């Protein structure tokens, strides 16, 4: 099946505070954007990539992916992440009409191992409408009340943190984004609301999202350790 990956990269990177949009921040010489897009293509499971860039960053982001060939497209994103994904999905309908599987992958998760990408695509190809990579929770989790006093210790055995790429059939993601004005912290959240089952595959600690400068330091260590 033809697979297109949507890469929302239109955020400002406020929490990182690097002075440039986060996707343009370089780690050991290469930007998060170019690393994320190259990782998708190199997995062998992704045919095309549509990057959503802030409208004033189309040129610099286009330059970052120019070397990666004609299978990579850069289009204008929107004010919220959901707006950027919606814009990229619309562009994908036009640019890659043959795609049946769609991934949504944050530029900020630039170090995701190929195995994770391949597992997500394979699960959709086997018939899952939606798939997310997850990790078990290592810390003890407590729920607190309005005053910050512990109300309960939550059983963490069934809790998972969720990464990207998240995979969908194109029809299901289109339906999820069809409802105007929807907001969710992840794309699978929109699909859950429609009642579709969301399967999980094993994520990887290297698929961390670069949010703060601490994460950048971790990312450098991950790269220095070599491929997984
Ligand atoms: N994103 C996007 N369009 C937006 C906001 C975010 O495409 N309007 C993208 C970001 O570029 C990033 C991903 O969504 O790849 C996850 O968002 P986040 O980690 O929050 O990145 P930023 O919004 O850039 O960071 P911050 O919230 O610190 O400003
Ligand atoms: Mg943000």
From TrEMBL:
Site (Transition state stabilizer): 15, 22
InterPro entries according to UniProt: IspD, IspD/TarI, IspD/TarI_cytidylyltransf_bact, ISPD_synthase_CS, Nucleotide-diphossugar_trans
PROSITE patterns: ISPD
MF term (GO), any: 2-C-methyl-D-erythritol 4-phosphate cytidylyltransferase activity
GO biological process: isopentenyl diphosphate biosynthetic process, methylerythritol 4-phosphate pathway
This protein's name: 2-C-methyl-D-erythritol 4-phosphate cytidylyltransferase
Site-annotated residues for Positions MEP for the nucleophilic attack: 156, 209
Matches recorded under HAMAP family: IspD
Catalytic activity annotation: 2-C-methyl-D-erythritol 4-phosphate + CTP + H(+) = 4-CDP-2-C-methyl-D-erythritol + diphosphate
Family listed: Belongs to the IspD/TarI cytidylyltransferase family. IspD subfamily.
Biological or metabolic pathway of the protein: Isoprenoid biosynthesis; isopentenyl diphosphate biosynthesis via DXP pathway; isopentenyl diphosphate from 1-deoxy-D-xylulose 5-phosphate: step 2/6
A Pfam family that the UniProt record links to this protein: IspD
Recorded name of the encoding gene: ispD
Lineage, top ranks: Bacteria, Bacillati, Actinomycetota, Actinomycetes, Actinopolysporales
EC number, UniProt record: 2.7.7.60
Annotated keywords: Isoprene biosynthesis, Nucleotidyltransferase, Transferase
Function summary: Catalyzes the formation of 4-diphosphocytidyl-2-C-methyl-D-erythritol from CTP and 2-C-methyl-D-erythritol 4-phosphate (MEP).
